[in-house]
Amino acid sequence: MAVHIRLARHGSRKAPFFRVVVADQRSSRDGRFIEHIGLFDPRSQSSAFTLDRARYEYWTRQGAVPSETVNRLAKQSAPKAI
């Protein structure tokens, strides 16, 4: 079973927000998922992105592949090392 970390679209028309989910590759974009690990709201001023880092790291260690968008957002929101 190939597992991916990707965005699932929710909200109303022209007012979307996205959940970061861990899902089987074969399930549809907004369909069945294994775990919900974050939120992304592109309409907010700061483009709010929250992610449960511990669960994200766990799933990537287990072999889950993040989508390009999730990977980019996770890198941008990573705590900066001094």
Would you write up a description of this structure?
This protein is of the alpha+beta class. The protein contains 2 helices and 5 strands, in the order ββββαβα. The protein has helices at residues 53-61, 68-76, and strands spanning 3-12, 15-24, 35-41, 48-51, 65-66. The chain has a 5-stranded mixed β-sheet with strand order 4-3-2-1-5. A hairpin with a 2-residue loop joins β1 (3-12) and β2. The protein is flat and about 35 Å long. The N and C termini lie far apart (39 Å).
Largest sheet: spatial strand order: 4-3-2-1-5
Shape: flat
- Number of DSSP E strands: 5
Q: Which strand-content bin applies to the residues? A: 35-45%
How far apart the termini lie comes to 39 Å
Secondary-structure-derived class: alpha+beta
Rg is 13 Å
Q: List unreliable stretches of 5+ residues.
A: none
List the helices and strands and how they pair.
Elements: E1 3-12, E2 15-24, E3 35-41, E4 48-51, H1 53-61, E5 65-66, H2 68-76
What attributes characterize this protein structure?
82 residues; alpha+beta; 5-stranded mixed beta sheet; flat; single chain; 22% helix; 2 helices
Summed up, what is this model?
By secondary structure, this protein is an alpha+beta fold. It is built from two helices and five strands.
